[in-house]
Amino acid sequence: MTKKVLIMTQNFYPVIGSAGNRMKNIFQLLNDKGIETHVLTTEPAYPNKNLYKDDMFWDDPHLNKSSDKIIRVPIKNKKFSNRIFSRLFLYIEIMFRFLHRLWKLKNEKYDYIYVTTPPIFIVFAALLGNLVVKSKIILEVRDLWPDSLIGVKTFDHPIIIKFFRMLERKMYRMANYIVINSKGFEQHIKASLDVNKHSLIYLPNGPRIHEIVKEKSNREEFRVVYTGNLGLAQDIEHLKHVASLLQEHNIRFDVLGYGMKAEEFIHYIEQNQLTNVYMHKPTTRKKSLELIEQCDVAIALLNDNEVFDTVLPGKVIDYMTCRTPIIAGIKGTAAQVIEDNKTGFVFDQDNVRGMVDKVLSLKANPNERKQLADNCTKTVSKYFLWESNIEKIVEIIYE
């Protein structure tokens, strides 16, 4: 008998970023495996709704024809805000809209609801809605919450955080299975659980087979790249410093950035006349990977907060997918992946000059870059390939 799964997520194709791409891959691959999989999501809105008026982002003809399996609920908010209460009202709105839709789906007989957090409110929509739908719950944790709120210093009221932690433990304990995209989450989650009654599955972000770059194209100009979110978790001040130092050495720096701090970064570039910094507008995953492939070294930065020690940013995997060695100002899980697999070099977040010095060293040593690039390809092919890792989810669905 065919198994049936409903994915509940705020981020889904054509939304840019790691989360949207992740949910797209899970949806497509489960359907390819013969598991009837539907998606309950919002209208694309990150970082703002107007972005998706451009047909460029709707670049998957097969998904565009899958309207019978993709349910999109409308939301009123036009763009994301860094104000905590504006975000809170957005998440509550999404929760109630999802609950309303789950009520309409009560006769669909899903075997599993696959729900992803953050935000946590979608999880509670799944847990409450499941009283009607009556499916098993696979909870995916892409970020530790509420720790991430504390980490970006947006909300740290002790009484509210204590209440949120109670909700977090409740969320973990009500799930039948828990999927994590970083091994750094494992210890924290197990501390909140009766481990004997729960299964933790490690399912990292990664490329599809066709996305892996085998050889870089030939070019003369040496280029450095940063892609992804410019938000509260990213180290925007150190990224500004990187840009300034690269300008001093006349090195081209390509930045494909979006998010709450993007305008601040653009203003800094203009104010300081950093003519070697090329800002790129948000674009599709395919074009983003093409940009990374055209560059020789990639930059990754996270704020120096303990909660981010557990994170494995999607951009790190994307850089390796494109055979682009990584210079990172990060700690913890991501640093270990880079160092253990020899795909780049890791520095303290404050050591920006050391990072740029290593960029200069790699510029002068193409043979070292080639060895790092080979390690990148070996690493993503062995540990991060979606076509291989999806079997972990298929296995529990058929269990």
UniProtKB/TrEMBL annotation:
Domain Glycosyl transferase family, residue spans: 213-377
Coiled-coil regions listed in the entry: none
Chain segments annotated as transmembrane: 84-100, 112-133
GO molecular function terms attached to this record: hexosyltransferase activity
Alphabetized Gene3D superfamilies for the sequence: Glycogen Phosphorylase B (3.40.50.2000)
SUPFAM superfamilies referenced in this protein's UniProt entry, alphabetically: UDP-Glycosyltransferase/glycogen phosphorylase (SSF53756)
InterPro entries, alphabetized: Glyco_trans_1 (IPR001296), Glyco_trans_4-like_N (IPR028098), Glycosyltransferase_grp1 (IPR050194)
Lineage: Bacteria, Bacillati, Bacillota, Bacilli, Bacillales
A Pfam family this chain is assigned to: Glycos_transf_1
PANTHER family membership: SULFOQUINOVOSYL TRANSFERASE SQD2
Keywords of this entry: Membrane, Transmembrane, Transmembrane helix
Protein's UniProt name: Glycosyltransferase family 4 protein
Domain of life, source organism: Bacteria
All residue ranges annotated as the Glycosyltransferase subfamily 4-like N-terminal domain in the record: 20-206
Protein's organism: Virgibacillus salarius
